[in-house]
Amino acid sequence: MTDTTLSAPPLLTVDGTPLKTRLRHIERLNQFKSLLLILPLIAFLVLTFLAPIAAMLVRSVDNPEVAPVLPKTVAAIQQWNKKSLPGEEAYAALASDLTAAKEDPSQLAEAAKRLNMEIPGFRSLVQKTARNLPMETEPESYKTALVELDERWGDPAYWHAIERNASTSTPFYLLSSLDMSVNDEGEIAKAEPDKAIYLEVFARTFWISAVVTVVCLFLGFPLAYLLATLPTRQSNLLMILVLLPFWTSVLVRVAAWIVLLQSGGLINGALETVGLIDEPLELVFNRTGVYISMVHILLPYMILPIYSVMKGISPSYMRAAISLGCHPIRSFWKVYFPQCIAGVAAGALLVFILCIGYYITPALLGGPKDQMVSYFVAFYTNTTINWGMATALGALLLLATVVLYAIYNRLVGANNLKLG
Known about the structure:
Blueprint: H1 19-59, H2 71-76, H3 88-101, H4 105-118, H5 122-131, H6 142-149, H7 156-164, H8 172-177, E1 180-182, E2 188-190, H9 198-229, H10 232-243, H11 250-261, H12 266-273, H13 287-310, H14 316-323, H15 328-336, H16 341-356, H17 360-365, H18 373-382, H19 387-419
Antiparallel strand pairs: 1-2
Membrane topology: Multi-pass membrane protein
Protein name: Putative spermidine/putrescine transport system permease protein
Family: Belongs to the binding-protein-dependent transport system permease family. CysTW subfamily.
């Protein structure tokens, strides 16, 4: 007797199409419809979020000012040994480029401004040279003529600055944001002490943000616990008080703190009235005022994530631990707190990220040594119109945010695995 394997015929739809094929087609159609529904949201995110970030990253390395204005000079110094002065060809190319650039004064001014960032005084050198070109009679040596016109053309440092701007992209802004620069040998080196300010600014920004985050955590954790454990009526009333800062403009709150904290303000007046102080305390236009105002503004951002996690923790866990003989404090630390870590981490991350980007509060309540990175971003954007430095500082803040989020994601993920 021979064993035969009977295979069932494939299931067919009414029109004879295999059922499996029809189901795949329906599934693809549903996926396409879902994609069409979220397509407006994707387009909105790309246009309002991803595109500006990409433009900022490109602008932080963009260097379009010098190379288009001095194309012949850039080409002539490609074979330059960078140790002595360039040859006659480079000087002749420079004279030709500056003569041609006089037809577009705005473009020449932008190139001079960019070179002035490399060496102070380069702008006046470019403008002076351009004004004296073309020369009445063509010189036998442009090198000699330009050096006689201004001796700075005999300094290799000025040619090194042109060479560093030969490309339409540059690390200048990003390196400057980290207090570094490219020296005449083409190596990355520390910036001069009088130009090294940004690492200190970043350190100050992260320190202020860390202090505000820690204070918000110590104040917010007990409040969140109270919100999660109080009866509904009292909890709702307390929640309204927590959310009140959201309903008031940040500028209005900062102005209110100036009124409260100034030397003749309500707080100093009350302390003097009760005899706790003999003279007004310096609470405003310094670091103290910045801390007080930022904690007040950002405290709800710490409370709400922690509260949302605590609300989902069953009180039976604590009762079970205490009933088994564990001390209430130890039960809280070993049983309750580990379940709050996700909320604590989310609140701390949110507050810290908001802090590092703050501008109005330090600008109005702080002193000169209390300004954060965002102040310099606004300064380069609105005052000096230096988009390269503004976007470079913004890009570093973005990088810090991404790194913090990656750390948060790793820590919370590891904690969830342990709890699981």
